[in-house]
Design brief:
three-stranded antiparallel sheet, eight-stranded parallel beta barrel, globular, alpha/beta, 364 residues
Length: 364
């Protein structure tokens, strides 16, 4: 039934402005009748960040920014959902148009700019589903006009820790001016120290809340050394690699749309994001797990992320072009890979190609 409606709706949605199509899809999910989620093969289950995931395929932040339909998304077969980015105060984001499809490339450019209802609006929605089960993470970011962005993150951790399965600190969006400066070692060390202290301080009432860091795929390797070093020193629970890129690969065919400002996602991001994932994996040395995101549009691409070092995966842009059937396709491909390699569990495949990947030429 999901596949039937997906095949009908996708061509229709592609005829609309991308942001209008997104809003329509989210509203449809909110109004859709509830159904039982697919039963996952037990070999896909894993325990990561102290949480039990039924499968490793999640939906990335950006789709459900304001926690309007996390349970509907879980019912589609995702192993986890990350909502957000949530900001302390409501903000409209950048002027429209701000999402652009690169159809020949199966890619998207966005410059949304953390459009958010604000944390006060999101909290009751998350609290209302507290007993529903399922893993729902919260991606948090600073307000554009904030005078103290570090304090924004501290206040967000305080607010969402009691209702979040995990929290992702997003300092890597290219669409909030100056935000990526927080990835620099000195600023990052101060920020993560305050965030971890806050998480630990509120844990008696919130319980244990894993904290993850989402980084840009555009970091230099020297900067990546610093980021991983700080994350390990501050004992983060994990990292997400990575956000959208400000780069424009030479392989892009829609050169006119590629001139739009913003972050690029979708298929063309895969080589860079996967290389950065492998580079991160070899630097982390097993200190914490990684989530791989960026350009996953097939079972083979998903398996490539795992072999590059990802314990978990996140999708978003590929759903526009491939539809919801991609979720089941990926899960089936992962089971096939386990059978082919004679592996008992996905963790047996995590990072097996990472070292070799880091020796390859840098993606063009």
């Amino acid at each position: 039934m999901i596949g039937f409606f997906d095949r009908l709706a996708r061509p229709l949605l592609r005829a609309f402005d991308p942001e209008d199509a997104h809003s329509f899809a989210l509203k449809a999910l909110k109004l859709a009748p509830r159904w039982r989620p697919p039963v996952d093969n037990s070999r896909l289950a894993l325990r990561t960040f102290g949480l039990n995931f039924p499968n490793p395929v999640g939906i990335a932040a950006g789709f459900d920014k304001n926690a309007e339909a996390p349970d509907a998304l879980l019912n589609l077969g995702f192993g986890f959902v990350e909502i957000g980015t949530v900001t302390p105060l409501p903000q409209a984001g950048n002027p429209r148009p701000r999402i652009f499809r690169l159809e020949p490339d199966e890619a998207v450019i966005n410059r949304l700019g953390f459009n958010s209802d604000g944390v006060a609006a999101v909290l009751p929605r998350l609290a209302a589903r507290a007993g529903a089960g399922g893993i729902v993470g919260v991606n948090v970011g600073a307000n554009k006009d904030s005078n103290d962005r570090a304090t924004d993150y501290v206040r967000l951790i305080e607010a969402v820790a009691p209702v979040a399965s995990y929290v992702t600190v997003n300092i890597s969006s290219p669409n909030t001016p100056g935000l990526r400066e927080l990835q620099r070692a000195s600023a990052l060390d101060d920020l993560l120290a305050r965030i971890v202290e806050t998480r630990d301080r509120v844990s008696p009432r919130a319980g244990p809340t894993p904290v993850l860091l989402k980084i840009a795929p555009d970091l230099s390797l020297n900067d990546l050394d610093d980021v991983v070093g700080v994350a390990r020193a501050r004992k983060l629970d994990g990292m997400i690699v990575g956000n959208t890129t400000i780069g424009r690969p030479a392989t892009l065919r829609d050169r006119a749309t590629a001139l739009q400002a913003g972050g690029l996602s979708g298929r063309p991001l895969y080589p860079l994001a996967t290389r950065m994932l492998a580079e991160t994996y070899v630097r982390v040395e097993g200190a914490f797990p990684l989530i791989g995101v960026g350009g996953i549009d097939s079972g083979a691409a998903a398996l490539g992320k795992i072999r590059a070092g990802a314990d978990l995966l996140q999708l978003y842009s590929a759903l526009i072009y491939r539809g919801l059937g991609l979720v089941a396709e990926i899960k089936a491909a992962l089971i096939d890979a386990l059978d082919r390699d004679g592996a008992d569990k996905l963790s047996d495949l995590v990072g097996v190609d990472a070292a070799a990947m880091t020796a390859e030429n840098w993606p063009a």
